[in-house]
Amino acid sequence: MRKGILLLAVICFLLTGMIGCASLSDKEDSLQTQSLLKFSDLPIPTGFKMLAKNSYSFESSGMRVGLLRYQGKASLDQVVNFYKEQMSMYNWTLLNITQYGDCIMNFEREQESCIISISPKGSTSVISIAMGPKSQVLPKKTKQAVK
Predict the structure, then answer these.
(1) Which of 26, 48, 57, 76 is disulfide-compatible with 70, CB 3.0–4.6 A?
(2) pLDDT tens profile 38-60
(3) Domain presence at residue 13
(4) Domain for residue 115, yes or no?
(5) What is the CATH number of the domain that holds 81?
(6) How high is the pLDDT of residue 22?
(7) Mean pLDDT to the nearest integer, 23-48
(8) Residue 14: DSSP 8-state
(9) How wide is the angle at C-alpha 62 spanned by C-alphas 58 and 64, nearest 5°?
(10) 117, 133, 113: which is closest to 125 by C-alpha?
């Protein structure tokens, strides 16, 4: 009988410890940045893997162009919050967010623009990052009469 009570006490102790440890983890709501990045100023959440067959990038003479796709386990809200926090650390300015099922975030800085699209796929999210030079604004043509 004492062995049964002792065994029950040990099981209760272990279960209480496991439940307590699970509730201490607040890291589930925030994502961390990976250490290896395709472009050093475009953060990618830890655990997201590049979809190499669906990605490309080019860099020459200070001009960078890329379409990078990643997939990983995180909710849409977690990824959106990640980019709201992280992009400003790399001097990107958030212009706008459009969200309806998927989410599209537009960023810019000096000479570049970046569009981040986030698509939830069950328990995972797919991130598409399109980056390139800003469009040059052409001067408006004036309508003058031809003489």
Answers:
(1) 48
(2) 688 999 999 999 999 999 988 88
(3) no
(4) yes
(5) 3.10.450
(6) 40
(7) 69
(8) H
(9) 30
(10) 117
Exposure string over 67-83, b if 16+ CB within 10 A, otherwise e: ebbbbbebbbebbbebb
**Going along 9-137, which residue ranges are E strands?**
49-50, 56-60, 63-72, 93-100, 102-109, 112-121, 124-133
Report whether 1 contacts 7 (CB < 8 A): no
140's tokens: 């408006």
Specify if 103 maps to a domain: yes
In the chain, the number of structural domains is 1
As a whole number, mean pLDDT of residues 90-107 equals 96
* In a domain? residue 56: no
Domain that holds residue 102: 74-134
Query: pTM score, two decimals?
Result: 0.70
